[in-house]
Known about the structure:
Low-confidence stretches: 7-19, 198-219, 454-462
Domain DUF58: 223-307
Region (Disordered): 1-23, 443-462
Protein name: DUF58 domain-containing protein
Distance between the termini: 73 Å
Radius of gyration: 34 Å
Number of strands: 21
Strand content: 15-25%
Largest sheet: 6 strands, mixed
Structural class: alpha/beta
InterPro entries: DUF58 (IPR002881)
Amino acid sequence: MAAGGTDMGPEGPGAGEQPGGLRSALAGLTTRGRSFLAAGVAAAVCSYVLGQADLLRVGLLLAALPLVCVAVVYRTRYRVAGSRRLAPARVPAGSEARVHLRMDNVSRLPTGLLMLQDRVPYVLGPRPRFVLDRVEPGGRREVSYRVRSDLRGRYPLGPLQLRLSDPFGMCELTRAFSAYDTLTVVPRVEPLPPVRLTGEAAGYGDGRHRSLALAGEDDVIPRGYRIGDDLRRVHWRSTARYGELMVRREEQPQRAHCTVLLDTRRTAHYGSGPDSAFEWAVSGAASAAVHLLERGYAVRLLTDTGSSVPGPDGGGGFTGSTHDSAETAGLMLDTLAVVDHSDGGGLSPAFEVLRGGGEGLLVAFLGDLDEEQAVMAARMRHRTTAAVAFVLDGAAWSRGAEFGATQELEDRLRRLREAGWTALPVGPGASLTQLWRQADAQGATRADAGSRAAGGMTGSWT
């Protein structure tokens, strides 16, 4: 919400001095006003050359009319206040937001005809303009307009401008408010099905590890009594031993961790625009992060540069409780709204972050991988309990043709799968929902194959 006030006159109680004075007012002459002034001067010159006194009167009238309008507009004193409200201030790409504008006349005089316009970036649509008729003293006017963008980003709205004109349209003066707002266009978030990604320690969605502080009567780890503790948890043996009230510790739930890795390397993605491979990867990372947060995971967003969200140090960044999931999701979406290609050449910075503590599920959205980067990605799997990779086929995206995995891409996928990844190729226009289900099916198949292999080994040894 942005608000501000402005004065539409050069003097009066509390009014500010207009910059430029009469010079700025003369500069506000419209095409019509300049035409009348030029015609008046021309008529006066012709009257002098031809000796026609009547023509001189006409020339003086034509020249005087725009000058009188300039003086009237310049002497007009209005005090108005304006505010702007966005609903909502954060929207997905391709969705609309409504901007509400409000003008209040805080002076004792009614206003004349006002033109209200708001500055918006070209990508959000045409510049909105509204004509406000006479506003009574203490009155207000409310108008609204819609903005929409297919490109994510942060876009400034404002400042709000008021244009004052005379009834003949000879002169226009513009005054601007100082306040502005920011509209954040985040990536599209696709709802994902609640499947179980094989490889998690305690199940998908319910994957929470619990460390039991109370493993038995002899293994009690008590703590001091705090106001509000349940008296049924008082541990009398420890109370007698320490001489103060001691209570049993409750089970401490630990949220399952997940890292969403987004490959932003410029060399790994082709094309630009809302339908490009990079935008698909950004939208996929946003969808996965929001979905896993909703399922109770502690999620961090990691890029190939090694920066992570949340967390300013770039080395951790996992959320700590379920209460901040909505805030964390908003923070991640705001980050993805402005994420751009990186000039990095490899995934080693991200690998270093994972090596410093990357246990849990890893969901990666990768661009084109050469042999070296495929090896680096394969090594990431050993730092996690489960890993799912969506590898974009850059050649297919650049051609815009029907998807068909090349031999090179198949080799990269095979290397990832041999390292334990659940790896899927992504072609133009692929549905993340379907790929999400395929990842679950592929992971289940790999788990069944591993179980049968383990069973065969056991039988041979017995």
